[in-house]
Design a protein that fits this description.
The chain is mainly β. It is 0% helix and 47% strand. The strands form three sheets. The chain has a six-stranded antiparallel sheet with strand order 2-1-11-10-7-8, with no helix packed on it. The protein has a five-stranded mixed sheet with strand order 4-3-5-6-9, with no helix packed on it. It is globular.
């Protein structure tokens, strides 16, 4: 089954397993709920077609769906494809990540005692 990595400021917030139709937005009835004013109540949907192609569809959101900096109404998704809804980024993948991929990677900065995530 396919999944989404939810990214915020470059860090993984969550990993979601996708159903055949997954609704993303602020409303409580969304499968993936994003509590952010830049995301519409029912912002976008990811659907799997009968031929196995995954598709991202903007549901008429206020701030749009962006892929590579361009606003898109619909787009086919392949593994590794990133898109943004409001200020949140998502990365689509066909296979579930290993446990290691689901953890944040912490790096040491050149400043003593200061660490950051990538």
């Amino acid at each position: 089954m396919a999944y989404l990595k939810h990214l915020y400021n470059g860090s993984i917030v969550s990993v979601y397993e996708l159903g055949d139709s997954t609704l993303i937005g602020r409303h409580a009835d969304c499968n993936i709920r994003v509590e952010d004013a830049t995301v519409s109540s029912h912002h976008a949907r990811i659907e799997k077609s009968n031929d196995g192609v995954w598709r991202l569809i903007d549901l008429g959101s206020t701030n749009g769906v962006f892929v590579n900096g361009k606003n898109v109404a619909e787009i086919d998704l392949e593994s590794g494809k990133e898109f943004t809804l409001g200020t949140h980024a998502f990365e689509f993948h066909i296979e579930m990540p290993s446990q290691l991929d689901q953890t944040l990677k912490i790096k040491k900065s050149w400043i003593p005692g200061v660490y950051y995530t990538e």
